[in-house]
Structure formats: structure tokens, C-alpha cells
Amino acid sequence: MHPLNPHIASTFAPPVMEARRWLQGVEFPPDRPLINVSQAAPVEPPPEGLRRAIAEAALERPEAHLYGPVLGNPDLREAVAAEFSSAYGGQVGPEQVAITQGCNQAFCAAISTLAGAGDEVILPTPWYFNHKMWLDMQGIAARPLPCGQDMLPDPVEAAKLINPRSRAIVLVTPNNPSGAEYPADLVAGFFELAQHHGLALILDETYRDFDSRTGAPHDLLARPDWDETVIQLYSFSKAYRLTGHRVGAMVASRARMAEIEKFLDTVAISTSQLGQIGACGGCATCAAGWPASATRSLRAAPRASRRFRHCRAGG
User: Fold this and answer.
1) Parallel/antiparallel/unpaired status of strands 120-125 and 248-251
2) What is the pTM of this model?
């Protein structure tokens, strides 16, 4: 097959899709059903209240079928800013928030504003496979940072990997795939390292709703000039079962948002209106009970159920 981008050809096939292909044509008896642990994602649809909010918007709100603002709908950006300000004890404004087509796109957008072919990004191992794939496809070298027996990366070891081509350090906490919850002082250590070397610290908190700890998992957003270093990512897919609607978020500086807007405009124009309405209005509508019962076993749902409650119903 020619021509072919060598950077795309050099990366591996999507692991979850590859695992699904292994199962094609395979039958499992009732007494030995398949237990799928290949992907930490919900398998049930959103709760009825959220689905109704989306359905009503589809029928009654013409703008739900049109392009929206490239950086996301104002009410959802305001909701994210308010939640992150409250949860982390800092000041995050709506103009520091972008809504994306899932958290994966938020990561791709962030990297695209930070690095180009030949640059390097430090990734703790084991890494989230899509992060590695995107770096490969952009010609950006992933510098592996092995974790210890406790599955925690070490800022001292990370410092040894920094060179003139380094552009960012990526942390995923709670971690995918290990599940490790990075202590606040560890995250702070990476922040100080990145700040000292003029690097970005990308925090992917896709699973923050399921963190078993109480209180803020770190204090970075309360620090002066945090947005000169931190780019924080979030996903609405997990706690609210919106995987198919593709809604994520990014918190970063106002200056970086101007660059993020360029990327998002060329790859999606705007995030799904119905997905954003579901993430904002739908979640507010059902916040009183559903997330708490849905994620009780993961011990974090009461906090998740309070999220984004001030969005106006339906959007």
C-alpha cells in the first residue's frame, strides 16, 4: 500500500480492537462466560434521566443539531470551571476550559500544541496505549519512565530523561492501566520538575470520579501561575456512561486555548451538541441519585454525583 505515512505504519494496532478480533467466531458456554477486562469502560447506557434530557434536546432544540463553539458550549465550560475550582481549591475560569470529543482528543490537542516531530515526551510505564500511539504517529519520541514495585513513577528518575528535546511529562492518575492513585506530594514533585525545566505537565484524570481518596488529589490548580505548566484532562465517558457521545475536557492557560482552538477546528469543528447537553443538563438532572448508586462499589460516586449541578436543565 503506497503512499503510507511511516509514522502511522510504525505504531501498533489498537489493542482493544485487536482483542475483540481474537473473539470473532468464538463461543463461550453459559457456565464459563467471557469476562472482559480489556477496557475500563461502562457497558450500560446512561441512566434514564440523562437519556431523556438528550432525547428532549434532539426533538425540541434546533441548535442541538448544528455546529457549536469550537472550544465547547459556554454552559458546560462554566460548569467544568466551577467544578475544578471547587474541587481543587483554585481559580479556573471558563476561558481556561475546552470541551473535546472525548479525553483522547484532549490529549492529542494538547500534544499538538506542545511538540512536533523529533521532540520527546516522558511517559511512565506501563503507559496508556493511545498516548503512545499518538506520539508515534506524530513522530514524537516517547521516553519510557519505568514505575517501581508500587506502580508509582519517580521524579528523580524522570529528571534523568530530560534533554533539550523534552517538551512534556504525562501522568495518568488514577492510572490506566495499573489503577495506582498518585499521592499529592508525588504529583507536586513532578509539577516542580516540569516547572523548573520549562516543560508542560499533562495530567490525565479520566478516572478522577473513581478515586478512592477524599479531598483534592493534588493542589496544583491552587498554585500561582499553575496554567503556565499544567494541562489537566477529564472525561465524561466513565462516570456518566457517555462513551458513545465522546465528551471530554481540558483545563489549561488562556494563551494555549487559542492554539487548542486551531487544532479542534480542523479535526472536529465542535464537540457533539447532544453529548455536551447530556454531560451538562442530563447529569444535573440525574445527579440526585444515579451516579451514587452506579459507582457505589468504587467508593467515589457521592463526589461524582455533585458534579456540574449548576448547568441549566437540558443544556
Assistant:
1) unpaired
2) 0.87
> Residue 242's domain is classified under what CATH number?
3.40.640.10
Give the range of the structural domain holding residue 274, as residue numbers without chain letter.
Answer: 48-304
Q: Are 182 and 152 in contact (CB under 8 A)?
A: yes
Task: Tell me, yes or no, whether 250 lies in a domain.
Answer: yes
How far is the C-alpha of 284 from the C-alpha of 298, rounded, in Å? 21
Q: Which three cell numbers stand for residue 220?
A: 496544583
Q: Of 171, 238, 247, 241, whose CA–CA distance to 209 is shortest?
A: 238
Query: Phi, psi at residue 166, to the nearest 5°?
Result: -70, 140
**What is the domain count for the chain?**
1
Going residue by residue through the chain (315 aa), what tens digit of pLDDT does each one get? 789 999 998 888 888 888 889 889 999 999 999 887 767 777 778 878 788 888 988 999 998 899 999 999 999 999 899 989 999 999 999 999 999 999 999 999 999 999 999 999 999 999 999 999 999 999 999 999 999 999 999 999 999 999 999 999 999 999 999 989 999 999 999 999 999 999 999 999 988 888 888 889 999 999 999 999 999 999 988 877 788 879 899 999 999 999 999 999 999 999 999 888 888 864 464 444 444 444 454 454 444 444 444 454 333
- 177 CB-contact burial (10 Å; exposed 0-12 / middle 13-18 / buried 19+): middle
Sign of CA dihedral 139, 18, 233, 81: positive
Rounded distance, CA 242 to CA 68, Å?
Answer: 19
CA distance 172 to 154: 14
Look up residue 95 and give its DSSP letter: G
Distance CA 86, CA 221 (A): 10
CB 253, CB 62: distance < 8 Å? no
Q: What gap in Å lies between CA 205 and CA 217, rounded to an integer?
A: 10
Count the alpha carbons within 13 Å of 181 in the hemisphere toward its beta carbon. Answer: 14
